[in-house]
Design a protein that fits this description.
Elements: H1 2-18, H2 20-24, H3 30-46, H4 52-80, H5 92-101, H6 103-107, H7 109-112, H8 122-125, H9 131-159, H10 167-170, H11 177-208, E1 218-219, E2 228-229, H12 231-248, H13 251-280, H14 285-306, H15 315-344, H16 349-355, E3 362-371, H17 380-388, E4 391-403, E5 415-419, E6 427-434, H18 445-465, H19 481-488, E7 495-499, E8 518-522, H20 531-546, E9 548-558, H21 565-581, H22 585-588, E10 596-604
Parallel strand pairs: 3-4, 3-9, 4-6, 9-10
Antiparallel strand pairs: 1-2, 5-6, 7-8
Length: 605
C-alpha cells in the first residue's frame, strides 16, 4: 500500500499544483494541465539518480517558504473576509454538521481525509533527519500554517461559494498569484520526493528479507543508510504515475484513490506499532489498549468513510497493492524453497573425503572459484559439477559473497578463509563481506585480494601448527595492518604478532572469537614458513598463473507434475518470469564473462 501511495502522491500533488494554470486561464483545456503535470513528473523521476543528499539543500528553503506563504495567505483571508470562521475549532460544529448532513456528511470524511495526508510519509524523513527535528518542525511550523491556510480558505468560500473548486488558487491575491504558483509546484515536487523515498525504503527492506526480486540498489549518501535510489523501481513508478495522471485526468478520482491508500497505511502502521509495543518495548497492557483505542477511533472513522469511495477511484491502490503482494509472495516462496533445497542437499564431508585428494577426477592446473549462497557446507551444485564433468581444477575455493547493513567493511576484515578437508585436497572456503557502499567491481582487484587472504591464511595456519598440540582447527586471520605486514614479510627477521584467532568446526563457517589472544614470538633463521608451507604457496601461485574460472550455480525451480494448477502458474510462469527479468548472479557478483561457467540443476516443488 505504501508503494501505491508512492504512485498516487506525485500524481495528485503535481496535478493539483499544475491546476493553477487553468484557474488563471478558465478557457484552457484540461489536457494542457495534464501535459504540464506529466512533464513535471518526468523531470521529478529523472532527477532521482542524483540522490536526496545532493538536492536536499533545496527542500528546506522551498518547504519553509511554502508554509510561510500559505500561512500568510490564510491570515490575510481571515482578516479580509470573515474572522468568525475561527469558531470552527469548536467541536460543536462538527456535531451539527453530521446531524444536518447525515450519511452524506459521514462519507464526506473521505475527502476531508486529504487535509491530513502526508503524515504517513513522516517516517521516510526519519532516515534524513533526527526524530526531534521532525517533531519540532511539525509542531512549530507545519501544523499552525496548515490551520491558518484551511481557515483562510474557509473564510474565502463563505463569501465566494461559487469558488469551491480550486479554492486555494482562487483565494490567492492577484498580485502574488504566479509567484505562489511556482512555490506550490516546487512544494508539490518536494512532497512527492518523501513518498518516493519511502517506496525505495520499503523495496530495499523487502529485498533484504528475500521478498522481492533482485534489483539494483544505489546508496546515494555516506552518512544516512536510508537515502537510496533503485533505478528499476524508479522507472516503474514513473510509468504508473503517468498512467494514473493521464488516465483519471481529474483530481477527484485520484483523491479518492489517494485517501484510500493513506488510511489503510495508517491502519497497518497502527497494528504494527501495537506489535512493537507488546513484543519489543513490552509496554503495560493499559498503555497498549489506550494507544489502540485512540488510534482506531480516528482511523476507523475515516476508513469507514473511504469505503464508499472504492467504486469512485478507491480501487486503484487496492489493485496496485494486490499486484505487488502477489509478486512478493511468489518470489519469497520460490526463493525459500530453493534455499531449503540447497541447505538440505549439501554434500557431506564423508563423501568428499571418500573421493580422495583427486576427487575421483583429473585435477587440471588452475583455480576454480565456486560461488554459492551458503556460508557453510559444500553445495550440491559442486557434486553435480564433478559428477557430469571429468575434470576439476587443482585448487577449489567456495566463495560466498555477503552484503552487510554497514557503510563499508575494512579491507583487513573483508575475507574470512578456512580450509575444507585435508591439505592435499586443496579446497578452501572464503566469505567475502561487503558494506552497502563497497563496490564489487569487474576487475582483477577482487581476485587479488582473495588470493592475498588465501596466502595469508596458509602462512598463519602453518605458524599456528607450531603453537598447538591439536591439528583439528580452522583459522581465520584478522590482523592489524602492522601484524599483517609482519606475517607477509619473509626477510628472516624476528616476527612478533598479536593474532585474533577464530575457530570453527568443519561443517560451520560461523566464526567464534577465541576467549584469549594467542601471543607468541616466532624466531627463524632465514624463513618464516616451513618447507610444506613454501611448497603449498608455490603450488597456489602456479595454479593462479594457469588461470581462474568462476563457477556459478543456477538452481531452476519447477512445479512437480502432481502440483495444483495455481502452484504451476505461480512457479512455472510467475516465478520463472521474475527470475528471468531480475539481476543475474553473474551481474551481482560482477563476474568476468570470459571466465564464467554456469552449472544448472532443476528442483521440483
Amino acid at each position: 500500500m505504501v508503494i501505491g501511495d508512492g504512485i498516487l502522491t506525485p500524481a495528485i500533488s503535481v496535478l493539483s499544483a499544475a491546476g493553477g494554470i487553468k484557474v488563471d486561464h478558465p478557457h484552457m483545456s484540461n489536457g494542457v494541465v495534464v501535459v504540464v503535470a506529466v512533464v513535471i513528473l518526468v523531470g521529478l523521476f529523472c532527477m532521482q539518480h542524483y540522490g536526496t543528499d545532493r538536492v536536499s539543500w533545496l527542500f528546506a528553503p522551498v518547504v519553509l517558504l511554502w508554509f510561510l506563504v500559505i500561512g500568510g495567505i490564510g491570515i490575510f483571508n481571515i482578516w479580509k473576509y470573515d474572522s468568525s470562521v475561527l469558531k470552527a475549532f469548536s467541536p460543536v460544529y462538527i456535531y451539527r454538521y453530521f446531524r444536518r448532513r447525515g450519511k452524506d456528511g459521514w462519507t464526506s470524511l473521505g475527502g476531508i481525509m486529504l487535509s491530513i495526508t502526508g503524515i504517513e510519509a513522516l517516517f521516510a524523513d526519519l532516515a534524513h533527519f533526527p526524530v526531534s527535528a521532525v517533531q519540532i518542525a511539525f509542531t512549530v511550523v507545519v501544523f499552525p500554517c496548515l490551520l491558518l491556510a484551511y481557515s483562510g480558505q474557509a473564510a474565502y468560500i463563505m463569501n465566494n461559494r461559487d469558488h469551491v473548486v480550486d479554492a486555494f488558487y482562487h483565494s490567492i491575491p492577484d498580485s502574488i498569484y504566479w509567484p505562489v504558483f511556482v512555490i506550490a509546484t516546487a512544494a508539490a515536487i518536494v512532497a512527492s520526493q518523501a513518498t518516493i523515498s519511502a517506496t525505495f525504503s520499503i523495496i530495499k527492506q523487502a529485498l533484504a528479507l528475500g521478498c522481492f526480486p533482485r534489483v539494483k540498489v544505489v546508496h546515494t549518501s555516506k552518512k544516512f543508510l536510508g537515502q537510496i535510489y533503485i533505478p528499476d523501481i524508479n522507472w516503474i513508478l514513473m510509468v504508473l504515475c503517468i498512467a494514473v495522471t493521464a488516465g483519471f485526468k481529474n483530481q477527484s478520482q485520484i483523491g479518492n484513490a489517494y485517501g484510500t491508500a493513506v488510511v489503510i497505511v495508517m491502519l497497518v502502521t497502527t497494528l504494527l506499532m501495537t506489535l512493537i509495543m507488546i513484543l519489543v518495548w513490552r509496554c503495560h497492557w493499559i498503555l497498549v489498549l489506550l494507544f489502540i483505542g485512540l488510534s482506531l477511533a480516528v482511523e476507523g472513522t475515516y476508513f469507514s468513510a473511504v469505503l464508499f469511495k472504492i467504486g469512485q477511484g478507491g480501487w486503484v491502490p487496492l489493485v496496485i497493492a494486490a499486484a505487488f503482494l502477489l509478486i512478493m509472495y511468489v518470489w519469497h516462496y520460490g526463493t525459500v524453497k530453493r534455499y531449503e533445497f540447497e541447505m538440505h542437499s549439501k554434500v557431506s564431508m564423508a563423501w568428499i573425503l571418500g573421493l580422495g585428494p583427486s576427487l575421483g577426477l583429473v585435477r587440471v592446473p588452475g583455480i576454480g572459484l565456486v560461488y554459492t549462497e551458503l556460508p557453510s557446507g559444500v553445495p550440491r551444485i559442486f557434486s553435480h559439477f564433478i559428477t557430469n564433468l571429468p575434470a576439476i581444477h587443482s585448487v577449489v575455493v567456495f566463495v560466498c559473497v555477503k552484503y552487510l547493513p554497514v557503510y563499508t567493511v575494512p579491507e583487513e576484515e573483508r575475507f574470512l578463509v578456512k580450509r575444507i578437508g585435508p591439505k592435499n585436497f586443496h579446497m578452501f572456503r572464503c566469505v567475502a563481506r561487503y558494506g552497502y557502499k563497497d563496490l564489487h567491481k569487474k576487475d582483477d582487484n577482487f581476485e587479488k585480494k582473495l588470493f592475498d587472504s588465501l596466502f595469508l591464511f596458509v602462512r598463519l595456519e602453518s605458524m599456528m601448527e607450531w603453537c598447538s598440540d591439536s591439528e583439528e582447527y580452522s583459522l581465520y586471520g584478522q590482523l592489524t595492518q602492522q601484524s599483517r605486514d609482519g606475517v607477509l614479510n619473509n626477510n628472516g627477521n624476528t616476527t612478533s604478532s598479536n593474532i585474533d584467532t577464530r575457530i570453527s568446526s568443519v561443517d560451520s563457517i560461523v566464526p567464534v572469537r577465541s576467549p584469549m589472544h594467542a601471543n607468541f614470538t616466532v624466531r627463524s633463521s632465514g624463513q618464516v614458513s616451513s618447507q610444506t608451507e613454501t611448497d603449498e604457496l608455490e603450488f597456489l601461485n602456479s595454479c593462479r598463473d594457469a588461470g581462474v574460472v568462476h563457477i556459478l550455480g543456477n538452481t531452476v525451480v519447477r512445479a512437480s507434475r502432481d502440483a495444483r494448477f495455481y502452484k504451476k502458474i505461480a512457479i512455472d510462469y510467475v516465478y520463472a518470469f521474475l527470475r528471468k527479468i531480475c539481476r543475474e548472479n553473474s551481474v551481482i557478483f560482477n563476474v568476468p564473462h570470459e571466465s564464467l561457467l554456469n552449472v544448472g540443476q532443476i528442483f521440483y516443488v
